[in-house]
Amino acid sequence: MNTIIDKDLLSIQEARILAENASEARKKLEEFSQDKLDSIVERMASEIEKHVESLAKMSADETYYGVWQDKLLKNRFVCSYVRKQLRGMKCVGIIKEDTSKQTMDIGVPMGVIASVIPATNPVSTTIYNTLIAIKSGNAIIFSPHPRALKTTARALDILIETAEAAGLPEGTISYLHTVTKSGTKELISHESVNLIMITGVPKIMKLAAYTGKPVLYGSAGNGPAFIEKTADITKAVSDIISSKIFDNGVGAASEQSIVVDAAVESAVKAEFISRGAYFMTEKEADTLGKMLFLSDGSTDPEFVGKSAEYLAKRAGIKVPEGTVVLVSHQDYVSGKNPYSKERLCPVLAYYIENDWQDACEKCIELLITERRAHTLVIHSRDKNVIRQFALKKPVARVLVNTPAAFGGMGMTTNLFPALTLGSGISGEGFTSDNVSPMNLVYIRKVGYGVRDVQDIFPDGTNINLNDSTVETKLDSVQLEQLRSLVEQVLSVNKK
Question: Options 3.40.309.10, 3.40.50.150, 3.90.1150.10, 3.30.420.40; which CATH number does 224-415 get?
Answer without folding.
Answer: 3.40.309.10
